[in-house]
Amino acid sequence: MIVGNFPILAVITPLMAAPIAVLLRRPGAAWLLALVVTWATFTLSLVLLGQVLESGPIYLRIGGWDAPWGIEYRLDRVGGLVMVIVSAIGSVIMTYSRASVEKEIPKDRIYLFYAMYLLCLTGLLGITITGDVFNLFVFLEISSLSSYVLIALGSNRRALTAAYRYLIMGTIGATFYIIGVGLMYMQTGTLNMSDLATLMPTVIDSRVIHAALAFLTVGISLKLALFPLHMWLPNAYTFAPSTVSAFLAGTATKVAVYVLIRIVFTVFGGVVILKNIPGVQEILMTLAIAGIFVASAIAVFQDNIKRMLAYSSVAQIGYIILGISFASTTGLTGSIIHLFNHALMKTALFMVMGAISLRIGGVTITDMRGLGRRMPWTMAAFVVGGLSLIGIPLTVGFVSKWYLIKAAIEQDMLLIAGLIVLGSLNAVAYVWRIIEAAYFQEAPKNAAVAKEAPLSMLLPIWVMAGASIYFGINATWTLNIATDAAEALMSGIIQ
């Protein structure tokens, strides 16, 4: 009975802790509270995923009201996996965050940072667990509004401009999403995802439903930064505090991808929208490939490494959407596993940037010169993350891209398979620029004195970097979950 209430407990715990952090006001006390809460949510997430793997999806009807009148929490394999990703990254980054936050955020605002962090975590966890499309919108806005504040807390004045741009783009995306939800409700009379999936085949020929699908797709694409709707992301990641960049890079866009998967393969799953509605599959595939190559090309010419990694994220989102566009079990498996794998590698890379910023105050290519000798463990973690981005064997990036290539070959799309390989080679160009500066160039004569990152930051960095290697060598657990989740999602199409 207690475990049956874990879904709501995982959401309520950080939600209730956020105002307590405001009342505490003291930075140390607020950090300790956030640390305990984030690790508690991670523990709850692991228990819930274990229960899903053992007994099947979890259903919790809030207040005992059955759908469509009440709100239903529903957790299946893909939702459980994303929930574990979000809570794991949230807890590891909170362990890492204290020194970085004290360096980059004014002392009188630190308590506000921890409160907003907990609210953002609440929204992201709620999205993964809800079975109601309007309740999903509520959690989406909780996470978005707190993200705007987190970005605006950056010490650079351009953080305010970045937060404002994100606010405008995010509001447009949320508006498109809720319009789509309203149109679906008008035709079906329900907001429950399972009910919508049952009723959708009877109304799919309606122009209202076609319009709803268009609004939903555009709105979610804005949130997940699909090219060319990504313009908010580079500045947001570049000028946000380092801890925020790492957290958002590992969680926010991944959860938005989960929403797209849920809408396409659950709500519209029974009507095969990627195959039967002309143009949808082709558009998604084209935008995904364009994002891979355009964003990678822009990344090569960036001097600020946080900005470089931001454009890299846009390219990696392209890989995830490409897998979805295949509309096959193998392609969807590749998307789900890359969602997990990219969260690991990109979180590690942004955490490295936070450690470097703490020690030398900058994260440009010039700042990297000779840093491999001055901060060897920190830069070694960057090398591991960079190799994962490229997709080198024995790293998580290889596993993801192998499945995407396999999905393309299964559908005789040999050109697409070749483009996936070529896109990976593009990553070599911008990763090598950093490695070259760190290991093959001398530090400038006026370079700041640098020493290794503090252990409180180095250990969490290597937890993520080590996971990028471990799940690249032994991917059985994640692949089994991703494959089972993909088969379950695709079964809605087959039926």
In short:
The protein has 495 residues and is mainly α. It has helices at 6-24, 27-55, 77-104, 110-129, 133-152, 158-188, 193-203, 207-224, 233-239, 242-267, 273-276, 280-300, 305-325, 329-360, 365-368, 371-374, 376-390, 396-410, 414-440, 455-473, 476-494, and strands at residues 58-61, 72-75.
Describe this structure in words.
- There is one protein chain.
- This protein is mainly alpha-helical and 495 residues long.
- The chain has a domain at 277-495.
- 79% of the residues lie in helices and 2% in strands.
- The chain is built from 21 helices and two strands.
- It has helices at 6-24, 27-55, 77-104, 110-129, 133-152, 158-188, 193-203, 207-224, 233-239, 242-267, 273-276, 280-300, 305-325, 329-360, 365-368, 371-374, 376-390, 396-410, 414-440, 455-473, 476-494, and strands at residues 58-61, 72-75.
- It has a two-stranded antiparallel ribbon.
- The longest helix has 32 residues, at 329-360.
- The protein is globular and about 70 Å long.
Give the SSE map:
Blueprint: H1 6-24, H2 27-55, E1 58-61, E2 72-75, H3 77-104, H4 110-129, H5 133-152, H6 158-188, H7 193-203, H8 207-224, H9 233-239, H10 242-267, H11 273-276, H12 280-300, H13 305-325, H14 329-360, H15 365-368, H16 371-374, H17 376-390, H18 396-410, H19 414-440, H20 455-473, H21 476-494
Antiparallel strand pairs: 1-2
